[in-house]
Amino acid sequence: MAGPKVTGMATLPNPLPQLAADPSGRALGLELPPGRLIDATDEGPWHEPLLWHADGTARPGGWAALEPARRTSGLLPLLIDVGGSQGGPGEWELIPGEVSYPGDHDAEEVLAEFWEEYAADELAPAEDYPGKEAVEEAVVAVFGEQPAYDETVAPYGPEWPGLAPAPERDADPDTRAAEIADSLADSGTWLKDPRLALVPARRSADIPAAIGWSGPMNYENDVARLCAVLRSWEDRFGIRVVALTFDQLVLSVAAPPTTMAEAEAVAAEHFAFCPDNITQGHHEALRAYAAHEVLGKQAWSFWWD
After folding, report:
1. Residue 98 domain flag
2. Which Pfam families match (predicted)?
3. How far apart (Å, rounded) are the C-alpha atoms in residues 110 and 132?
4. Strand partners, 52
5. pLDDT in tens, 35-45
6. Residue 56 maps to a domain
7. CB count, 10 Å around CB of 203?
8. Which residues have a Cβ under 8 Å from the Cβ of 189 and sit 6 or more positions away?
9. How far apart are CA 92 and CA 195, in angstroms?
């Protein structure tokens, strides 16, 4: 799904070049472990480092140790995974030059566009072609009978249902982020070889755009449009971008939905943001996804095929 033509990410002064001469980060008020600066992109070297990440595997407590960077230098903590088949961020096909500014996009407009385009595609008459019946039978044999569109998105329909209301916040967003980061570092869930990282970004929601992350490329080629949604979730649900892999995004959530009605409304936003979470996940319908992956959950994960 193609987004608008983009002109480049608006940036703040980047303190990362100082780490080239001072790897410990003491000039920035930090005490960093051994690590490396990443300036590799899909188009060759970038003109300045996009992120720093530690050489050693992240351990519980490491996220909190990076918190001074946020306060003193504008560098935001992140976990990145170097253990996947695509390697670390130096091999992730980062495209910072192709990313716009998240503040130039409206979250609800982005979600409504995604929702309504998906509905239009699903409800359009299927085209006939030679061998269609055999292909459909093969798909059913491998994946099973897939639910119809109205079953997938119930209790909603083709028209965008609107943004979910903000629940009561039950935790400080940065405290919750540290808790989720520690859990990810300790459990092996979602991340195979997590490393602590620092990214120069205006706010946590902007981190994917700041590094030109291309994980959702098969769905949206300007990740800043998705970051506009993350900004809205940051405001309403207290999310923080906690981890990135080549194609997966993990968020902490300080104000998760506490009722099924709230969870279904949030699940509709998740469906527009990343349909693969539902159509290719363990729960093939929005209601089931809301019950198992959204209701009361303190972390949300997204993966794009």
Report:
1. yes
2. DUF4253
3. 33
4. 37, 198
5. 999 998 877 78
6. yes
7. 17
8. 183
9. 15
Q: Of 59 and 305, which is predicted with more confidence?
A: 59
Q: In angstroms, what CA-CA distances link 50 with 22, 40, 67, 286?
A: 17, 8, 18, 36
User: Does position 167 have pLDDT exceeding 80, yes or no?
Assistant: yes
Residue carrying structure tokens 């092996």: 188
The model's pLDDT over 228-285, given as tens digits with 9 standing for 90+, comes to: 999 999 999 999 999 999 999 999 999 999 999 999 999 999 999 999 999 887 777 9
- Count of domains in the chain? 1
End-to-end CA distance of the chain: 13
Domain that holds residue 89: 18-104+178-253+299-303
Give the pLDDT score at 56. 95
Give domain status of residue 294, yes or no: no
Residue 268 lies in a domain: no
Q: Compute CA 177 distance to the chain's CA centroid, rounded to the nearest angstrom.
A: 14
Cα–chain-centroid distance for residue 70? Answer: 20
Q: Is beta strand 239-244 parallel, antiparallel or unpaired with respect to 75-81?
A: parallel
Q: What is the pTM of this model?
A: 0.88
